[in-house]
């Protein structure tokens, strides 16, 4: 919802703190998730993630969330799907080039990031991996952080579960 | 950044020149050569025809070739269909003119784009300008599917990877990388203003070696932008060409302002055109004044003239602005380049001939 999305950007700081707390919890779920199997968890977790993020951010389930780096303004709402900053078509009032009644997601990101006390990410974002569309970003985070924490234990398990 | 003496070095430029570019260079291009020599560069945009007739391209290019250092072949700008950028570049390289291939992310995905870049480089295109592109809604076919698989940043880094690492985005190796000078667009004239210099920094990090800005009609904004750019030291790692263009009338200015995305025209400019007896002449005068002021601005490496459907005016604008003053004759327009090309092509054919003979020897 557009109004909620704007609210989320206004409350970027709080939401970011909330997310970090959430991340602290979910990264500890890695052993459990690994035991159940990430593939098996994919659909149920995505089913929970989707309505929550859709409500808060108009999330498009790109499967590679960058919200905490873009001031809680989802770049996938950009009609050009720009993940590396605003295009040159932003209107003088901060409106989107393609949908003038919508605020440019990157103008919003700039404001949201300032509220969070950061700058919108200047790190180069890779092009969207379209094979991840519809998949859970949360699970990806759990997996990535978990594997970072215990790479050795995971290697063995990965070998055992990969062929399907 | 390597600087060399102002004179023309034959080995530096020429399309599809064999061998790697000289140290400090990414391409064999004329534009890169001039910029690195410290010459204040002039580029211009060619308005692509709605036609399959090559002579329509050559006619428009001929006017520009007298005075500019590179000709931008636009890629369906404003989301309107015209002859393709790759097609125009093919024609221009055949006539030994130095084109800038514009690549927009709106119409093609990463597979098509990487292929196009290889094809263009093989034809002798030495400059590629990476753009995100306008939305399909502003063009003549708003029903079209907007692609936007890559954005200008990932496009820059993809082509840089092909050039410097000799690999596709997938990691698959190339046998010969495209030796291209990489460019991007910049628009200092739209919000969020504070973010614009940082965005330029990011484009440079992604691979941009030169930028061409959108139309500049507001010098104070450009001054602020350039001050910030200099603070960040960006003018030392990237050549900045400021976009300018003649406005035909106050009506045209208003139309552009309301219809074309990303163009900021202050009220003062529109009023000046309104008051003028001959608005077309006044538009040209304004453009010349802008060029003269932009030239004095520290950190600016050149101007990019976009004379929409008024190519014939570009030669006058360049001449009257005096922007080419101080150049040697060989450095004016693309004439010097064209003389070199004929020789270069003969060398290239000889080398290719040798390569084929080698292949035959190996195969037999």
Order of helices and strands of chain A: HHHHHHH
Strand fraction of chain B: 5-15%
**End-to-end span of chain B in angstroms?**
47 Å
List low-confidence stretches of chain A.
152-164
Which outline of chain A best applies?
globular
CATH architecture of chain B: Alpha-Beta Barrel
Low-confidence stretches of chain B: 1-12
Task: Give the overall pLDDT of chain A as a whole number.
Answer: 85
Helix proportion range of chain B? 40-55%
At the fold tier of CATH, the topology name of chain B is TIM Barrel
Which sequence of SSEs, written as H and E, runs from N to C of chain B? HEHEHEHEHEHEHEHHHEHH
Rg of chain A, Cα atoms, Å:
17 Å
> What oligomeric assembly is this protein in?
heterodimer
Quickly count the helices of chain A. Answer: 7
Structural class of chain A: mainly alpha
**General form of chain B:** globular
**Biggest β-sheet description of chain B:** 8 strands, parallel, barrel
- Rg of chain B (C-alpha, Å): 20 Å
- Helical proportion of chain A, percent range: 40-55%
Folded structure, characterized:
The complex is a heterodimer of chains A (164) and B (364). With 164 residues, chain A is mostly helical. Chain A has one domain (2-161). In chain A, 53% of the residues lie in helices and 0% in strands. Chain A has helices at residues 2-10, 12-26, 30-36, 38-57, 105-116, 137-149, 151-161. In chain A, helix 2 crosses helix 5 (105-116), helix 3 packs across helix 6 (137-149) and helix 6 crosses helix 7. The radius of gyration of chain A is 17 Å and the shape is globular. The N and C termini of chain A lie far apart (39 Å). Chain B has 364 residues and is of the alpha/beta class. Chain B has one domain: TIM Barrel (Alpha-Beta Barrel). Chain B is 43% helix and 12% strand. Chain B is built from twelve helices and eight strands. In chain B, strands 1-2-3-4-5-6-7-8 form an eight-stranded parallel beta barrel, surrounded by seven helices. In chain B, helix 5 links the parallel strand 4 (127-131) and strand 5 (181-186). The longest helix of chain B is centred in the last third of the chain and has 29 residues, at 335-363. The model of chain B is unreliable at 1-12 (pLDDT under 50). The A-B interface holds A 79-92, 94, 97-98, 104, 106-107, 110, 119-120, 122, 124-128, 130 and B 105-106, 110, 132-135, 137-138, 146, 148-154, 157-158, 169, 185-187, 190-192, 194-195, 198-199, 201-202, 205-206, 214, 261-262, 264.
